[in-house]
Design brief:
This protein is an alpha+beta fold and 106 residues long. It is built from five helices and four strands, in the order αβαβαβαβα. It has a four-stranded mixed β-sheet, with helices on both faces.
């Protein structure tokens, strides 16, 4: 299932140390230009979604809204996290493909 692959890959990125999460840490990572992809949970506040979307657009960072706070948080072994920043280009590309519905060939 597509969503299971997304959550599994997020967990792998967490174990590899290639992810930042939570509002403050995520903002710092984006502003320091280390962010390759920002993921915000579907059920986060409209204000949070708007803020991170605008921040990503201004700094040319890929941005996606997907999943729930509970499932995304569980995938990285945390509780109540709505914002996730992928700091690795390869993890980011793979997640974008999976979120946007494309499967990897080869």
């Amino acid at each position: 299932m597509k969503s299971n692959k997304i959550y599994g890959l997020l967990g792998l990125a967490r174990r590899a140390g290639k992810i930042a999460f939570g509002t403050e840490s995520s903002q710092d990572t984006i502003k320091s230009k280390k962010a390759k992809l920002v993921i915000v949970a579907n059920d986060s506040s409209d204000r949070t979604k708007k803020h991170f979307k605008e921040l990503c657009e201004s700094l040319n960072v890929d941005f996606r809204i997907v999943g729930t706070i509970e499932l995304l948080s569980q995938s990285i072994g945390q509780v109540n996290k709505a914002v996730f920043v992928i700091k690795d280009e390869n993890f980011a590309k793979e997640l974008i493909k999976r979120i946007d519905g494309g499967e990897i060939i080869g």
